[in-house]
């Protein structure tokens, strides 16, 4: 957009997540969406790089024939097969769809940081694959070969259709709902549901003192992803507040239906990754865990819970429980600032 020469100042009430009035997206102030600025600062304080974590012990364990069972090897490879392309899918959506249509400069600032973190995550998977000497061609192509991963990714990528179209513009009810649907799908489903069976498997390894380097990489990634999810939820709730007309009963039901579909895709994936269970966690536990997670996502955007189940993996809640998330970050940010280490 060309700039107009004027002494007239931008008013905070004209700021909106999308469709900001004559959006001047280069003036960080007046700042309205302070959650984005806070998220940006937390992310900077949490900065990390994959190569800071040693992989020597993992390499020895992977080479040894007596540490990992064949099922555990398959599970690790399959989980990596999902991860290796997942963050690239997330990054593409941020850069090619979300960023363009967001008119809040502080949200854009955070999106730049988030996009960099997705790159760091892809680097982390590359680092694990390379360190362990795994077959890159097999793992990076798994999203097209493994049926359950393919089904999850196809579902997610279908929400790029339309919004990746260069002529897509916000400003109509249908377009704004499409944008909101995209944010919900990528934040709550991709980052908030589709990563979680894989996170649970990696923490399963960690609880057995196996593949601790790889698990630590994933812990850092999960910390970032909780922040991405939190930011996405804050954006969704801000859009709902700024444009309540988008949040129709029909749209709400549509979102509930999408989340229910995603839950089936995710537990089907979990069941095919470890058909006979892993580390004492079985298919039924994973189904219930995913349902539990989905309910938590729903209530964060004021939609009704659908499953009402207990968390079958209470040990995961220490690390993942989003109800503690605010506190979680508030209590630990300072430590990260000084030490940069990960303590749970
Ligand atoms: Fe992310």
From TrEMBL:
Domain of life the protein comes from: Bacteria
UniProt: Fe cation 2 binding residues: 118, 191, 225, 228
Pfam family, one: Ribonuc_red_sm
The protein, known as: Ribonucleoside-diphosphate reductase subunit beta
Residues where Fe cation 1 binds: 87, 118, 121
Keywords: Deoxyribonucleotide synthesis, Iron, Membrane, Metal-binding, Oxidoreductase, Transmembrane, Transmembrane helix
UniProt-listed PANTHER family: RIBONUCLEOSIDE-DIPHOSPHATE REDUCTASE SMALL CHAIN, RIBONUCLEOSIDE-DIPHOSPHATE REDUCTASE SUBUNIT M2
Entry's family note: Belongs to the ribonucleoside diphosphate reductase small chain family.
Active-site residues (renumbered): 125
Needed co-factor(s): Fe cation
E.C. no: 1.17.4.1
GO BP term, pick one: deoxyribonucleotide biosynthetic process
Known catalytic reactions: a 2'-deoxyribonucleoside 5'-diphosphate + [thioredoxin]-disulfide + H2O = a ribonucleoside 5'-diphosphate + [thioredoxin]-dithiol
Membrane-traversing stretches: 183-205
Matching InterPro entries: Ferritin-like_SF, RNR-like, RNR_small, RNR_small_fam
UniProt enzyme class: oxidoreductase
Role of this protein: Provides the precursors necessary for DNA synthesis. Catalyzes the biosynthesis of deoxyribonucleotides from the corresponding ribonucleotides.
An MF annotation (GO) of this entry: metal ion binding
Cofactor note: Binds 2 iron ions per subunit.
């Amino acid at each position: 957009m060309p700039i107009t020469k004027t002494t007239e100042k931008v008013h905070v009430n004209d700021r909106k997540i999308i469709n900001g009035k004559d959006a001047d997206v280069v003036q960080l102030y007046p700042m309205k969406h302070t959650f984005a600025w806070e998220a940006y600062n937390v992310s900077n304080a949490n900065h990390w790089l994959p190569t800071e974590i040693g992989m020597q012990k993992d390499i020895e364990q992977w080479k040894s024939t007596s540490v990992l069972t064949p099922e555990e090897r398959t599970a690790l490879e399959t989980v990596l097969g999902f991860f290796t392309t997942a963050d690239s899918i997330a990054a593409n959506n941020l850069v090619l769809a979300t960023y363009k249509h967001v008119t809040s400069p502080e949200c854009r600032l955070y999106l730049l940081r988030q996009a960099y973190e997705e790159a760091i995550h892809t680097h982390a998977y590359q680092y694990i694959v390379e360190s362990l000497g795994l077959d890159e061609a097999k793992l990076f192509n798994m999203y097209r070969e493994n049926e359950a991963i393919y089904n999850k990714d196809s579902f997610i990528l279908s929400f790029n259709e339309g919004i990746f179209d260069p002529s897509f513009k916000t400003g109509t009810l249908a377009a704004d709902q499409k944008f909101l649907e995209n944010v919900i799908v990528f934040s709550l489903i991709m980052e908030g549901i589709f990563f979680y069976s894989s996170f649970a498997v990696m923490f399963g390894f960690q609880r057995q003192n196996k593949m601790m380097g790889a698990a630590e990489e994933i812990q850092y990634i999960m910390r970032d992803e909780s922040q991405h999810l939190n930011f996405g939820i804050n954006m969704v709730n801000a859009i709902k507040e700024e444009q309540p007309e988008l949040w129709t009963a029909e749209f709400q039901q549509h979102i509930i239906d999408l989340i229910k579909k995603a839950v089936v895709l995710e537990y089907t994936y979990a069941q095919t990754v470890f058909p006979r269970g892993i580390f004492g966690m079985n298919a039924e536990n994973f189904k219930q865990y995913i349902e539990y997670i989905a309910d938590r996502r729903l209530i964060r955007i004021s939609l009704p819970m659908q499953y009402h189940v207990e968390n079958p993996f209470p040990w995961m809640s220490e690390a993942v429980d989003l109800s503690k998330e605010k506190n979680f970050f508030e209590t630990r940010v300072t430590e990260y600032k000084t030490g940069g280490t990960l303590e749970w």
